[in-house]
Amino acid sequence: MTRARLNIFIEPEHAKRLDQIAAHKGVSKSAVIAAALASFLSPDGEDQREAAIAKRLDQLSRQFDRLERDQNVLIETVALYVRYFLTVSIPVPEGQQEAARAQGRARYVQFIEQLARQIQRGRSLVREVHEDIGPAAADPTQADAQSGTDADAMEVPREPA
User: Fold this and answer.
1) Residues 125-144: b if buried by 16+ CB within 10 A, e if exposed
2) Which residues form a coiled coil (predicted)?
3) Tell me, what's the pLDDT at 50?
C-alpha cells in the first residue's frame, strides 16, 4: 500500500504534544496522525464521540446525584440538631453566662479536635448514615421509617476537667 506524502503546518503546542504522545506510545508521529485522522474521518467516529460524551455525562450526573444526596443529609442533620438544641436548652441565668461561654469555648475546641480526628481517619459521617440506611436510601418513604442513630457508635464529647 502506498501512502501519500503531506506537508502540513500545525501549532507549536500541537507539535510538542504529538512528539510526547508518539514517544509515550512508542510509535511514529505519522502513525499517531494516521490514527487520529482515521478516527476523525470514520463514519462511526461521530457515534463514538457521542457515546463517550454520553458516558461522561452519565458519570457527572451520578456524581451530582451523590453530592445532592450528601448535601441533603447534611442539611437535615443541621436542622435536626438546631431543633433539638433549641428545644432542650434552657436560658442561662445572667450570673452564670461567663462560665457558660467558657464552657462553650471548651466544647467548641473539643468538637474541632474530634472533627479533625474523624477526617484524619478518613471516616465520613454521611457515608456511615448511608450505610446505616442501606437499601432504604433509594426509597425516601422507607428512609424516614428506618432513620435513627446508633449512639454506641458515636463518640460522645466529655466535659473538660
Assistant:
1) eeeebbeebeebbeeeeebe
2) 50-77
3) 87
For 44, the 3-state DSSP assignment is: coil
Quick check: 125 and 70 in contact, CB under 8 A? no
Side-chain-facing half-sphere of 42: CA atoms under 13 Å: 13
Terminal alpha carbon distance of the chain: 86
**Cβ(147)–Cβ(133) below 8 Å:** yes
Hey, what's the cell of 60?
457527572
Residue 130 lies in a domain: yes
> What's the pLDDT score for residue 157?
47
Residue type, 55: K
Q: How far is CA 56 from CA 44, 62, 151, in A?
A: 18, 10, 40
d(CA 19, CA 27): 10
Handedness of CA 115, 118, 124, 125 (dihedral sign): negative
Q: Is residue 147 part of a domain?
A: no
Number of domains in the chain: 2
Alpha-carbon span 89 to 129, nearest angstrom: 26
* pLDDT < 50 positions in the chain: 139-161
Domain membership of residue 84 (yes or no) is no
Residue 32 lies in domain = 12-41
